[in-house]
Write a structure and sequence with these properties.
The protein is an all-alpha fold. The protein has a single domain, classed as Amino acid/polyamine transporter I, CATH 1.20.1740. The protein is built from 18 helices and no strands. The longest helix is centred in the middle third of the chain and has 36 residues.
């Protein structure tokens, strides 16, 4: 039996970057501008989201040091809290964390790739499905070549985004930048403003959701105690800086009236800044970004299901072994493909932001629970403790505020959790973990 590939720091960091730079950064600011009213508030929301993500990366790095094996939230919650919570986290990963996020990225890829030029013979959402199927096959049967291909695409994508930012920098003194509020926007003050910003941070949080991507393949990493934590904070810090620069251009290159509530906010800004040629460049960058996001999540997500199968909480057919990667990758691709038909980009983003934020907050909170690993807990630095506590607090408060503003966004989250709770007795009986 051949040994699985051993990934190094470069590949891990590329996986983190690829998983993060997907749909959100190129679509969310239009919705956010329509919600908070001014470009300055949009940038504040992105800054808050970046700080939360960096704190989360530090916290997940600590978790990875203590359990340097594949499994993600499922593994951490099962080992550190209770198998029931681990099973729920695994169920969330299967139905939302990866499948839903892959579907969103694939839909965004199609949106930017086709724009208004869809051929009559091409059915709606067909291109999104093709992207999922191609990378599902690649990461299922051609793991090493597709990992190399993914790294190359990440590099090309970053070059394209750098060129876009360079054009923006050249035109700082000549382009008419727009920082005025959205026309006829009702003023927001006090609680209303707080709720609007909180909702925006929740949407934006999905753009940072891949900051923990490397933890899902820890068992296949060289020196995971060092490389996994380092890849998390390094990738997250780089992406945060890039997001702030990009969104500064996205929300100010064109008038707010042209940008607010638009899904293709990056294309609108690029056209205003450099005409059709720059718009084509940013569309290419977005397509590459969403493509690598799909690829990164199809590569990392299935490792969770294999870990669950190893523990008896998922069908044994998907347990670790020579063919487990192919089977779990294909399962992930099929579920993601089904979710493409289940909703729009915006509806899926709201759903994913809520449920993934709560799952991550609960996972990081286990760092503060009494554990048998007393020595590991004692070694947690003050910086790690502060970052972890802030991540839990900020994520929880933001989710609560968003729920107060629009309780309907919690319905899909509640249904997902209730179905997982209903399935737990069956999984528990299968594995014997109810003893």
């Amino acid at each position: 039996m051949s040994q699985p590939p051993r990934f190094g720091l470069t590949t891990l960091t590329c996986i983190v970057i690829a998983s993060m730079i997907g749909t959100g950064v190129f679509t969310t600011s239009g919705w956010t501008l329509a919600t908070v009213g001014t470009p300055q508030r949009v940038m504040l929301a992105w800054l808050i989201g970046g700080v939360i993500a960096i704190c989360g990366a530090i916290a997940y790095g600590e978790l990875a040091k203590r359990l340097p094996v594949s499994g993600g939230e499922y593994l951490y919650l099962s080992r550190r809290l209770h198998p029931f919570f681990g099973f729920l986290a695994g169920w969330v990963s299967l139905t939302a964390g990866f499948s839903g996020a892959i579907a969103v990225s694939a839909l965004a890829f199609e949106k930017y790739a086709l724009s208004d030029s869809r051929p009559e013979w091409l059915p709606e959402k067909a291109l999104a499905l093709v992207v999922i199927l191609v990378f599902g096959f690649g990461h299922g049967f051609l793991v090493r070549p597709f990992a190399v291909l993914q790294n190359a695409i990440v590099g090309i994508k970053l070059v394209a985004l750098t060129v876009f930012l360079a054009v923006a920098a050249i035109k700082i003194g000549t382009h008419p930048w727009h920082w005025q509020p959205v026309p006829d926007f009702a003023p927001l003050e006090g609680t209303a403003l707080l709720l609007a910003v909180a909702s925006s941070v929740m949407w934006i949080s999905l753009s940072f959701a891949g900051f923990n991507a490397a933890i899902y393949i820890s068992s296949e990493v060289k020196d995971p105690e060092r490389n996994v934590p380092k890849s998390l904070w390094l990738g997250t810090a780089l992406v945060t800086v890039l997001y702030l620069l990009l969104n500064t251009v996205f929300v100010s290159a064109a008038p707010a009236a042209d940008t607010a509530a638009k899904e293709e906010v990056a294309a609108v800004a690029a056209k205003a800044l450099g005409g059709s040629q720059l718009e084509i460049l940013i569309r290419v960058a977005v397509c590459l970004g969403t493509m690598t996001s799909v690829a990164g999540m199809i590569m990392t997500g299935p490792r969770v299901f294999s870990r669950m199968a190893d523990d008896g909480l998922f069908p044994k057919w998907f347990s670790s072994g020579q063919y487990s990667t192919s089977r779990t990758v294909l399962l992930q691709a099929v579920i993601a493909g089904a979710m493409v038909y289940m909703g729009t980009i915006q509806s899926l983003v709201k759903y994913l932001a809520t449920i993934l934020t709560l799952s991550s907050a609960l996972t990081v909170a286990t760092l503060f629970l009494p554990q048998k690993e007393a020595q590991a807990r004692a070694r947690m630095s003050i910086l790690t403790a502060v970052a972890s506590g802030f991540f839990v607090l900020a994520s929880t408060v933001t989710a609560i505020l968003m729920a107060q503003r629009d309780p309907k966004d919690l319905i899909a989250t509640g249904v997902t959790l209730l179905v997982g709770i209903a399935l737990w007795p069956v999984a528990s009986l299968m594995s014997g973990s109810s003893k």
